[in-house]
């Protein structure tokens, strides 16, 4: 089944530090694109405060690795809008900017992994996120957990089970998604491997691995 031509456009944002981007991010984005029949998935690297940055890896390099990792993958976009602004951006700002471009009827999705979802109540203006977008939570095999009281209150009445119900409205719903290829890959583990001189082969695209080696990153 495909989305009819006059149906409102469906677009997702997947934010993250992408430090570095790996197959868990990219395969999730591809499957999200396919499963929800999206026009495109904007992968948006976050501005990271200098004291939290991986030593020697700049925001431009994180964006470049994302571009290399995406390559010509249909439907995925490396979106540097948070880096173009000075200072950090909140997800509500980024969603506001996407909403402005797409119009009020577009179906906008903010996708995030389960680990990020569990911290949602502590984000800036979490209620506003639901005014701007639907939330789609991607299950991660290495991050089991259940929402605390505060998060349960925030999402109360928003959850839909059938993805068709999600797109009946432009925003405001919550869907948990178990994608076919769930992968226990994290950037933290990749950075550890790189610092220790261990192999990262097949955990990230070879184009990204070559870039890391050529720039001597994560050493
Ligand atoms: P780190 O280990 O440095 O915290 P990470 O691997 O979790 O990094 P992020 O850049 O923080 O990567 O992740 C961006 C988004 O992608 C987050 O919403 C995160 O939950 C999600 N994500 C990361 N890895 C996976 C994975 N293997 N499967 C599904 N979602 C993932």
TrEMBL record:
Pfam family, one: CTP_transf_like
Catalytic activity: nicotinate beta-D-ribonucleotide + ATP + H(+) = deamido-NAD(+) + diphosphate
GO MF terms held by the record: ATP binding; nicotinate-nucleotide adenylyltransferase activity
Domain Cytidyltransferase-like: 13-193
Pathways per UniProt: Cofactor biosynthesis; NAD(+) biosynthesis; deamido-NAD(+) from nicotinate D-ribonucleotide: step 1/1
Annotated TM spans: none
Keyword NAD in record: yes
Gene Ontology process terms (BP): NAD+ biosynthetic process
Keyword Nucleotide-binding part of the UniProt annotation: yes
Record-listed E.C. numbers: 2.7.7.18
Keywords, ordered alphabetically: ATP-binding, NAD, Nucleotide-binding, Nucleotidyltransferase, Pyridine nucleotide biosynthesis, Transferase
InterPro entries, A to Z: Cyt_trans-like, NadD/NMNAT, Rossmann-like_a/b/a_fold
UniProt family annotation: Belongs to the NadD family.
PANTHER family: NICOTINATE-NUCLEOTIDE ADENYLYLTRANSFERASE-RELATED, PHOSPHOPANTETHEINE ADENYLYLTRANSFERASE
HAMAP family assigned to the protein according to its UniProt record, in alphabetical order: NaMN_adenylyltr
Chain's role: Catalyzes the reversible adenylation of nicotinate mononucleotide (NaMN) to nicotinic acid adenine dinucleotide (NaAD).
Protein name in the entry: Probable nicotinate-nucleotide adenylyltransferase
Organism expressing this protein natively: Modicisalibacter ilicicola DSM 19980
Gene field: nadD
